[in-house]
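Following up on my earlier thread - several people asked me to post the actual chain instead of describing it. Fair enough. Here it is, all 154 residues.
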Amino acid sequence: MNAHHQNETPSEENQQVSIQEAHRQRVAEVRATLAKEFSIDTTYVGVPKLSRILGIAPSTIYGYMRRGQFFMPYRMINTTAMIALDDIAEWHCSSEGVVPPAPRAQIAQAPAQAPIAQPKLLDNPSSRQPPTSARQLMEETLREMGLPATRGPR
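Reply from S.P.:
Thanks for posting it. Predicted structure:
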């Protein structure tokens, strides 16, 4: 037994092995599902297919790769970035990058959205006559904005 597992009982060790086996089985199931759903018959997937799997534009993936910030390992095969299908399945099954939901109590205590203010009518639109000229429209609009309705020569 190695140093990491020295304090574990045989029952705890069996449980750990069982968890690891369940994880390996889940990864294999996800890998098979991805291969079937996206017609993958190779070990590696290119960025265009990965973009369809993840729902991220290829340009976004390439940008993260160029900046060294892509969250998954990849290989350059000649000039083509390729991602191992096993790595995609492993990532899918991991908890890496998963943002947990807010606790229900925190959601319940969140402030309610303020009601949307209704636009204020400056005067009764049905009682006014439509403007007869562009100048009249401009003067009326300026008046409603609280600005001088007429402007002198420039």
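The radius of gyration is 31 Å. That should answer part of your original question.
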